[in-house]
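Q: Here's a chain of 164 amino acids. Please give me its 3D structure as tokens.
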Amino acid sequence: MVRLYDMSKDLPEEYLLAYARMVIWFGRLEGAVKLAIKNLAVSLDINKSFMDGLEEAEKKQRYYSMCDYIFVLHRRKYGECPETDGLVSLIKHLKKLADHRNHFVHSQWTVDDGKVIVLHSKWTKKAGLRSTRHVVPVESLYALRENIENAWREVHAARYGWAK
């Protein structure tokens, strides 16, 4: 049975602020990923300048492709090395953060019975259409934002080492 929700209800201010901070930090994380590509591309002489390096990142267009390209460039520069496992783990983490962010960004938010809920539909060849509804505590947005910010710090720390 299909249930109808009143989608005109606004979210509490605390949620709006937490959501905005999460989205802003993800934009910063994506920027750090692009800068990581730039650092690797310039250090490998694939590109000669800052702007050429950023252009190299932008050619990938999708965040997942950019994350994968970091690995490709890192492997080209360093080959198999002890840091490879850590980089693979970081890239998986970066993609998982994108999945969590996408779930929230590409969902419908409303308030039902005093609780903030997210309605999400997704179609896949394997499962067909799947719809979910779940209550979202504001703390989950805080936690996601914090995880994104920590990943941003990790990417920046790594990319400074790759610039050499």
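Q: Can you summarize the key feature?
A: Residues 13-43 form the longest helix (31 residues).
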